[in-house]
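Structure (tokenized):
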């Protein structure tokens, strides 16, 4: 299947450009919504969890939130669009002999473009905080690992997208179920709160660290923490959210999870895609 995707790479890029044009065609602000949505969400959460609930973080809370919200919006948006991509292109699937996998893959890549655009506003925030508050907030040498984290998350989304998009052709409730699961997944991932708070609360529940280590098995947890670690490495060098050894162990589990979902997703998609034309 992946050889077919490579052979149709120009089609994938064409679909990505099409998705971007359709998304912003009738929009007055166009691609500026890539900045506006995460910024608006960050400001709401900053007001609630900084002024009312008062969550404390090692880095300024605005940066903490935005650094978690951007990868999550990439994650959530790619899943929503990938799972519906085969259905949305049913006419093409039924009439033209192209590998249907190009549709969920192009959905992930188009959302990756949104992530890159949204990262520009994060760069502005980091520049502002580093200039006026603390120069240690500028990224250090750890920034070289940022592309690896993005690639890992992107590969994970391709695997999940292949699974959900193939199931959604046969079971139309997949979209509603995934929406509910993603809502829970958001709060089980250290986006609003720091890892120190999660460990303190979870360790107190059972009197040990077992629940906390189960929490670390969430494949998005080390990815979100890794984004903050590589972007604010100098600032967090003396007091990281979790130790580097624990972070590497968590990322290793995320890699294993990613390899698994990509393998399962490719096998499932190949098998179920044989009946797409009849179901659509």
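Design, position by position:
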């Amino acid at each position: 299947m992946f050889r077919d995707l490579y052979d149709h790479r120009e089609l994938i890029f064409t679909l990505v450009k099409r998705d971007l044009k359709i998304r912003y065609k009738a929009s007055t602000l166009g691609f500026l919504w890539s900045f506006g949505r995460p910024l608006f969400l960050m400001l709401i959460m900053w007001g609630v969890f900084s002024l009312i609930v008062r969550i404390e973080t090692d880095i300024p809370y605005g940066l903490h939130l935005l650094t978690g919200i951007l990868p999550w919006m990439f994650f959530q948006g790619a899943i929503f669009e990938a799972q519906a991509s085969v259905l949305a292109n049913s006419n093409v699937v039924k009439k033209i002999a192209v590998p249907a996998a190009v549709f969920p893959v192009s959905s992930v890549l188009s959302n990756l473009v949104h992530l890159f655009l949204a990262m520009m506003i994060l760069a502005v925030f980091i520049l502002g905080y580093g200039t006026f508050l603390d120069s240690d907030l500028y990224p250090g040498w750890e920034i070289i690992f940022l592309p690896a984290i993005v690639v890992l998350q992107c590969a994970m989304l391709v695997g999940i997208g292949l699974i959900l998009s193939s199931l959604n052709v046969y079971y139309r409730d997949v979209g509603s179920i995934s929406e509910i699961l993603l809502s829970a997944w958001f709060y089980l991932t250290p986006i609003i709160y720091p890892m120190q708070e999660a460990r303190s609360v979870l360790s107190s529940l059972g009197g040990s660290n077992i629940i906390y280590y189960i929490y670390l098995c969430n494949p998005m947890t080390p990815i979100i923490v890794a984004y903050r670690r590589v972007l604010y490495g100098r600032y967090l060098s003396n007091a990281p959210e979790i130790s580097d050894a624990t972070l590497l162990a968590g990322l290793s589990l995320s890699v294993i999870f990613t390899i698994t979902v990509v393998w399962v997703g490719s096998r499932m998609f190949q098998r179920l895609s044989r009946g797409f034309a009849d179901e659509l």
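Reviewer-requested clarification: The mean pLDDT is 84. The radius of gyration is 20 Å.
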